[in-house]
Amino acid sequence: MVHTFGLLDRLFALDTESGSVFEIDKIVKALIDGDDTSPFSSCELSEAREEIANLKSDGVLFAPEVKAELPPYTPVIKAMCLNVSHNCNLACAYCFADGGTYNDERRNMSYETAKAAIDMLVEKSGARRNLEIDFFGGEPMLDFDVVKKTVMYARSLEKEHNKNFRFTITTNAYKLNDDDIDFFNEQMYNVVISVDGRREVHDRVRKTVSGKNSFDTVINNALRFKEKRKGQYYIRGTFTRYNLDFCSDVLFLNDLGFDQLSIEPVVLKSSSPLAIREEDIPKVIAEYDKLAAAYVERRKTDKWFNFFHFMIDIDNAPCAVKRLKGCGAGGEYVAVAPDGTVYPCHQFDGIKDMAIGNVFDGNLNEELRKKLYGCSVRSKPECSACWAKYYCSGGCMANSFKFNNDINAPYKPACELMKKRVECGLAIKAIEEQ
User: Fold this and answer.
1) Residue 175 CB neighbours (<10 A)
2) Rounded to whole angstroms, how far apart are CA atoms 304 and 33?
3) Which of 315, 319, 415 lies closest to 20 in space, CA to CA?
4) Which of 82, 192, 243, 325 has the highest local Cβ count within 10 Å?
C-alpha cells in the first residue's frame, strides 16, 4: 500500500508497510496512482519506472504487509491515571466529563484511595521498573494535598520495590501559584496546562463555574509557570466549530512564548453547536495546511516550537507490533476514579459497564482486559485497509465505544483529521531532514 499526497508545494509518497517516506515528482506520482501519464515523454516514464522498480526490489516501496501479530496478553500494568477530582472550578462548554463530574456527584479522591491505587500499581507492575502516574480530573488542583501526599508515598516505595515513578499532571491553571510550580519542578516529569488560544476563543467556552471569564487568570498563571518551568510541559487546547481557524490560536500561543503546543479537535455528537461536522472537514484540513506552512517557517527562527500532532519520528518509531495497538487502555494502562473504581482509561470513567475492578481488593476483570487488549488494527477491517493504520493504530477505544457502542468500530469523524495530521507530520519531517 502506497499513499501519495501533496503538501507545502511538494509531493510525497508513504509506503505503508515499510514506513518509508519519499519526496517524489509528478511522473512518479502518476505512475504510483495509476493516473494519466500522457503528458510525460517515454524517456521520463522509463526512468521513473526503473526508479520505482529499484525501490520495490529494495523492499521500501510496495512492500508486503507486515505479518506481525499482537503478543500474548500479559496482565502487567505500567501506567495509571488517578482521576483525583470529580470536580472542577471551570465549566467548559465541551467537557467530555460533564463539568468534571463524569456524570456523578462532585467528589475528591481520599489519600487512602490514592495509596491503595499506588499499592495496586506496584503489585500489578511485576518486574517492570519504570512506572507512570498521571493526575487528572476534573481539576486535580482541587485535591492537591492528596496529589502531593500520593507523590511522596510513591517515592517512599521506589527503593524497596525497585521502581521509578514518573508523574504528570493536567491542570487548567486557574488556581496555580508559585508553590505549586515549585512542586511541579521538583516532582512532575510533565505538566499539561489547558488553554484554548485567543482570549475570545478561550473565554467563550472555558468560563468559571460562576460564569466568569477565565482567560486572564489562566494565561497569567501559565506564563509565570513557563518562566519558571524546569522540565517538559505542554499547553494543550481544544478547537471547536467556533474556532475552525485554530491556526491563529496556535500562533497566538506561540507569540506569547509557549514552545510546546497541542490543540486538538473537540469530540462531541453532531447535535452539539460546538461539534465539528462533516461539512467543516475541508476547512479544518485547509487550516492544518496553513499551520504546517507557518510551523516550518517559525522553526527556522527564534519562534521555534513543537506542535504535538506534527511530531512523527520516522527513524526511531515503535516497532510494527506496537504500531498495531497504539492504546494500552485496560491493559498496561488503567484509570482510577475517586471511589477507587478502576476503568480502562480516564475517558471510560463513569461508564459502569466498563469498570474492570477496584483498588481496594485488587481483583480485576481479566476477561474484559483481554477483550480490550485484543482491540487493534487487526480487529478493525476498515483500519486494516487504511494507509495511516500504523500512525493511528485504530484510534481511541473510548470514542469508539461512546459513539458506536463497540470498541472495534472506528470513530470516523476523527479519521480524516488524523490522516491529515499524519501527512503534515511526515512532510515536515522530510523537509526538515533535507
Assistant:
1) 15
2) 36
3) 315
4) 82
Element holding 14 (H helix, E strand):
strand 10-15
The more confidently predicted of residues 300 and 326 is 300
Q: Which residue has the cell 502531593?
A: 148
Cell of 254: 506561540
Calculated CA dihedral for residues 223, 227, 229, 234, nearest 10 degrees: 40
pLDDT digits (tens, 9 = 90+) for 179-216: 999 999 999 999 999 999 999 999 999 999 999 999 99
103 three-class SS: coil
Burial of 360 (C-beta count, 10 Å sphere; 0-12/13-18/19+): middle
Per the CB < 8 A criterion, the answer to whether 22 and 5 are in contact is no
Task: In whole angstroms, give the CA distance from residue 122 to residue 150.
Answer: 13
pLDDT at 73 (0 to 100): 87
Tens of pLDDT along 159-177?
Answer: 999 999 999 999 999 999 9
Q: Is the entire prediction scored with pTM above 0.85? A: yes
Judge whether residue 319 has pLDDT over 80. Answer: no
What's the rounded Cα separation, in Å, for the pair 31 and 377? 28
Q: Residue 138, preceding bond cis, omega within 30 degrees? A: yes
Query: Reduced to 3 states, what is the DSSP secondary structure of residue 227?
Result: helix
- The Cα 371–Cα 379 span in angstroms is 11
The pLDDT-based confidence of 235 (bands split at 50, 70, 90) is very high
CA–CA distance, 237 with 264 (Å, rounded to integer): 6
Write out the three cell numbers for 160: 524497596
Q: Decide if pLDDT at 72 tops 90.
A: no
- Alpha-carbon distance 28 to 49, whole Å? 8
Measured from the Cβ of residue 47, the count of other Cβ atoms closer than 10 Å reads: 14
Torsions phi, psi of 160, nearest 5? -60, -40
Could you tell me the three cell numbers for 250?
A: 496556535
DSSP states of 116-173: HHHHHHHHHTTT--EEEEEEESS-GGGGHHHHHHHHHHHHHHHHHHT-EEEEEEEE--
Q: What are the backbone angles phi and psi of residue 319, rounded to the nearest 5°?
A: -65, 170
